[in-house]
Amino acid sequence: MNKERTMQTGGVGKRIAKEYKTELSMLAIFVVFFVVLSFASPYFLTTKNIMNVMSQVSSTALMAIGMTLVIITSGIDLSVGCTLGLSGMVGCMVLMNTQNIILGVLTMIVISVLVGLVNGILIGYLQLPAFIVTLGTMKICRSLDYVISNASTASKFPEIYSFLGKGKIGGSFPVYILFIFVMFAIFIWVMGKTKFGRYLYAIGSNAESARLTGINVKFNVMMAYVISGLMCGLAAWIMTSRLMACDATYGDGAEMDAIAAAVIGGTSMSGGKGTLWGTIIGVFLVGFLRNALNILGVNPYWQGTAIGAVIVIAVLAEKLSKLKVKKSK
User: Fold this and answer.
1) pLDDT one-digit tens code per residue, 96-135
2) Using CB atoms within 10 A as the burial measure, which of 38, 49, 123, 238 is most buried?
3) Phi, psi of 299 (to 5 degrees)
4) What is the SS3 assignment for 277-292?
């Protein structure tokens, strides 16, 4: 009986190792990276520094959820950073002028969802290239951000607005971390247990085959971009609540970190493969990489090079892995 249980446990272990090979590899890299940096700098493994990193990656984490869903469909969303900026600015201006928190947050979410909906209709229903569409909306959103705000900062919010970004449960556990965990839990369940999640994987693997099996490809692709937009609105909420202000530069370049987190976590740029478990690892790896470069005194202008190199290496590793599988067959 014990032998049979051991064999079953071993079988489950092998299946998990095979299904989550990339995620486990990145987790191992993250652990090694974390240990090395702990010895390299006395400031790295401190509660203050870790909480600082968690704060910095809070918005990226939410945008990475939406980015993962979009990339799984074989798409891309370059507009996430600027969507965060525009929705955050408009919502904060409403909040500043009305002092109504509910109205301000709803404005952020509505604006971001509308941007996602426009992306989704153009890409899903009109079948325009995702790269071009989201590049266009990225430029439009950033331009509108500056026009609407006149390049000024929105601030002077009700003090209670800081609860999501600065509030703590039991005096120690940040509210925004719980919020992020809840969002990841919801979408891990969605991608693993619902028809919508299975449809996105099917579309990313082969959109035409998915269509022939009865999946509404256009609608589901659109919804992936709508969710990506929604995540941008929630990310704007966290960021502005944490900083208690918003200016036209918020979200600038954030799309690169969101893409990096998804790709590093094992989401295939060709679609049909990836998990939000991997994305969580990717978010922390990107966040702690930036933090390590700062602590070690590396010129901040090199940070973009480091993140870009990690993205290229992750994509290259995926490509080599696919070639190895093909040769073995």
Assistant:
1) 999 999 999 999 999 999 999 999 999 999 999 999 999 9
2) 123
3) -50, 125
4) HHHHHHHHHHHHHHHH
| Residues 92 and 157 sit within 8 Å (Cβ to Cβ) | yes
Supply 325's token pair. Answer: 């599988």
Bridge partners of 173? 169
Is the predicted pLDDT of residue 203 greater than 80, yes or no? yes
Cβ atoms < 10 Å from Cβ of 164: 22
Which residues have a Cβ under 8 Å from the Cβ of 239 and sit 6 or more positions away? 58, 59, 84, 88, 165, 246, 250, 251
Span 274-320, pLDDT tens digits = 999 999 999 998 888 888 888 888 787 777 787 788 778 777 776 77
Between β-strands 168-169 and 173-174, what pairing exists: parallel, antiparallel or unpaired?
A: antiparallel
Q: At 156, which amino acid appears? A: K
Distance between CA 34 and CA 55 in Å, rounded? 18
pLDDT band at 222; cut points 50, 70, 90: very high
CA proximity to 234, closest of 320, 111, 51: 111
For residues 215 and 203, the answer to whether their CB atoms sit within 8 Å is: yes
Is residue 115 within 8 A of residue 137, CB to CB? The reply is yes
List the helix and strand counts (H, then E) for the chain.
14, 2
Residue pair 289/307 in contact (Cβ under 8 Å)? The answer is yes
What are 66's two structure tokens?
């939406």
Exposed e or buried b per residue across 13-30, where buried means at least 16 C-beta atoms within 10 angstroms of its C-beta: eeeeeeebebbbebbeeb
